[in-house]
From TrEMBL:
This is (2Fe-2S)-binding protein. Coiled coil: none annotated. The keyword Cytoplasm does not apply. Keywords: 2Fe-2S, Iron, Iron-sulfur, Metal-binding, Oxidoreductase. Pfam families: Fer2 (PF00111), Fer2_2 (PF01799).
Amino acid sequence: MCDKHNQNNCFEHIPSGLPPITVNCIVNGEKVHAVVDPTMTLLNFLRLELKLFGTKEGCGEGECGACTIIMNREPVNSCLILAVEAEGANILTVEGLANDNEISILQQEFIKKDALQCGFCTPGMLMSARALLDRQPDPSIEEVQEALAGNFCRCTGYIPIIDAVLSAAKREREELK
C-alpha cells in the first residue's frame, strides 16, 4: 500500500498493525520461512521481502498480467493474492526460469524473436507462457493466444510473442526429450 501524502517510499509496504502471520512456502526451489503483515500482497512479498524484482506491478488490479507468477502449477496475478495465501505453496517467478545461470529456451526464444521492447510485460508473459508449455507442450496458436490473453503489451504487439512461445515449444520438444 502506498500513502502518497506520507514521506514513506511508495515501494514500501505500510504495515496494517494487525498481528504478523508466518508463511512457509517454496520459491524458485528454495524453502522460505517468513513473518509477514497479513495485508501484504504476494507481489510485495516477492519484491520487498525476497528481493525478487523480476515480477512487476502494473495495474495492481489483476488486469495487466505484469505480476504473473506460477503458484502450484497455475499462472496467477500476484497482486491479487495475499502473501499469507502462499502458505505451503510452490511458487515460480521469472528468476526461477534460468537453470544454472543459463536462460531457459523460452527466454532465449523471446530474445531471438524480438518478443520484447521495453521489457516491462516480459516477466508476466514468460510466466504465462511457461505455465502453458508445462501443461501443453505442443500448443496451437489459439492456445497460446488464450494463455496470454491476461497479459498486456503496449510495445511489441503480440505476433513476435506468440512466435516466440511456439518456437520455444518446438525447441523444448526436440531438445528436452
